[in-house]
Amino acid sequence: MRVADRPLVGIVGGSRSDFPVLEKAAALLGELGIAHELRVVSAHRTPDWLFRYAETAASRGIRVIVAGAGGAAHLPGMLASKTLLPVVGVPIPTQDLGGLDSLLSIVQMPRGIPVATVAIGNAENAAILAAEILALGDDGIRERLAAHRAARAEAVLDDESNADGLPHGRGG
Ligand code: RP5
């Protein structure tokens, strides 16, 4: 693998069943041209693998970890406890409690060990937050992020409900 292809963002899920949500983060990072990986790392089923992943991530070139888990969602917090890399938590929606269980498990961290937690199921925002962190030291990523945000604004302004000529800053 070329050094340029080494993943900068490590996306991990507690189970392969989390992948449909986390693949949205992977897709967005791909659009932004940010190298990433997507792996299963279970806090409860493979605690030793979790520790090894956290302990080796920085030396492998990972700069931000995006961690998704559902239910008793200990993966993001435990990763955060074992690395100084920023960890963004994605609460995975659950059948029984709608993901509120995941959200509270991830967001209610003790003082000193933060996990930047996004909304339930909102892996796209986790990807954007990871990209914003990387953009602090990478002008190319910052420009691609700016273009991504501008495209989203254009989509709103181009909506047919805004086609009545009211002034919205685009010469309307
Ligand atoms: C958590 O348990 C995982 O993050 C997943 O969201 C949930 C259920 O896992 P499976 O039983 O589908 O493997 O650890």
Set down the secondary structure blueprint.
Blueprint: E1 9-13, H1 19-31, E2 36-40, H2 47-57, E3 64-69, H3 75-82, E4 87-91, H4 100-107, E5 116-117, H5 123-135, H6 139-157
Parallel strand pairs: 1-2, 1-3, 3-4, 4-5
The site of 5-O-phosphono-beta-D-ribofuranose has 10 residues, from loops.
Q: Nutshell version of this structure?
A:
By secondary structure, this protein is of the alpha/beta class. It contains six helices and five strands; from the N terminus they run βαβαβαβαβαα.
How would you describe the overall organization of this protein?
The chain is α/β, with parallel strands linked by helices. The chain is 42% helix and 13% strand. It is built from six helices and five strands, in the order E-H-E-H-E-H-E-H-E-H-H. It has helices at residues 19-31, 47-57, 75-82, 100-107, 123-135, 139-157, and strands at residues 9-13, 36-40, 64-69, 87-91, 116-117. Strands 2-1-3-4-5 form a five-stranded parallel β-sheet, sandwiched between helices. The radius of gyration is 18 Å and the shape is globular. The model has no long low-confidence stretch (mean pLDDT 94). It binds 5-O-phosphono-beta-D-ribofuranose.
